[in-house]
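Homework help thread (please don't just give me the answer)

Our assignment gives two proteins as sequence + structure token strings and asks us to describe the second one. The first is just a warm-up. Here they are:
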Amino acid sequence: MGLSSRHLLGLDGAPKADIELILNTAVSFKEILNRPIKKVPTLQGKTIVNLFFENSTRTRISFELAERRLSADVVNFSASGSSVSKGETLKDTARNIEAMKIDMVVIRHNSAGTPHFLTRVVQSAVLNAGDGCHEHPTQALLDMYTLNEKFGRLDGLRVCIVGDITHSRVARSNIYGLKTMGATVSVCGPATLIPKEIEKLGVEVYHRIDDVLPNVDALNVLRVQMERQSGGLFPSLREYHRFFGVTKERLDKVDHPITIMHPGPINRDVELSADVADGPHSVILEQVLNGVAVRMSVLYLLGTVN
């Protein structure tokens, strides 16, 4: 049994069975990560190229670790200092790299739809590591894995995604995946940072963080992406923190514990106060470890089963 597609481009329309298979397979790889020897020969002989056209720390390291834990040969590519800076097209870059007998391509790009385009010009399996403001499927999968590990279920779980929804590929993938798995999903943020008609995706919309907290089991708090904004979407970072920042004072007013998540990097004391980020209900570091297990699962399923 394998995935329904030989690529992982997004979670929009992904079958529930695919998500379950990835999450269930990740459990076994999480066990491997807790062993003294954290390496298996599963993808020995396979070559994976990481094509990163955007800056990345967590995602890139997580993918590279996952690939090396599976014993794959890894090639890292960055746009700076490459032929792309000399005017080479993405199509030619990808085809030239594939001519060196690549089996899988992990791509991050600032343009939405780039991984889909890549599937039309290369024969290798393509894995989306984030494309513009479109999707970031493995981040959503590791978020779901972390929630399932914490609560033992996703069906019926109440999750709110807080912050810059408009510019967030993480938010979109989480909405698609969580809704498919039966969770109740809401979003919260300034009206200027929430897309129009997002309710059509089956989510509730809030503009006051204090209205959300009594009704959720978990918050997935997003970074304010200043680099994707033209400015003027809210008065200042101080004002944003005042009205939408998740603080210990706010959480203490709620009569039940709320699990705190964040895809990173954190703008401390903007979207999250430091004492919440480091507090007992934060699973942010668990997300980081789970990201390696989930990406091992996806790489395994795309590289050996399909």
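The one we have to describe:
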Amino acid sequence: MTARLALIGLVAGVFSTLFGVGGGIVVVPLLVALAAFPTHTAAATSLGAILVTATAGAVLYAARGEVRPWYAALVGIPAVGGALLGTNLQQRVSGSALTLALAGLLVVIGVWLILG
């Protein structure tokens, strides 16, 4: 189990710094598929893990002058409210419904990126 979790973390770190994604798009599906985490636990665990990954990536990008702090705040501060609402909503939805919703979101995003 430890090796799988470390591999999931490595993959999440690569994808999050390459594309600015990691938590819901990479970590949650991998925790569910490879580590047999329940969806609710996978989502919560990914939030804790992505904090570390995002901090490391942001520091390295900031050292290169590529972080726009004002824009990051404009996205990040409202995202705190969204995280509070999302956590509340997530606790009211079944694990299977949450998994289906995530899969649907990923399909929509994939189609949008291909066609957009």
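TA reply:
I won't write it for you, but here's a hint about the kind of observation we're looking for: The CA atoms of residues 81 and 87 lie 10 Å apart.
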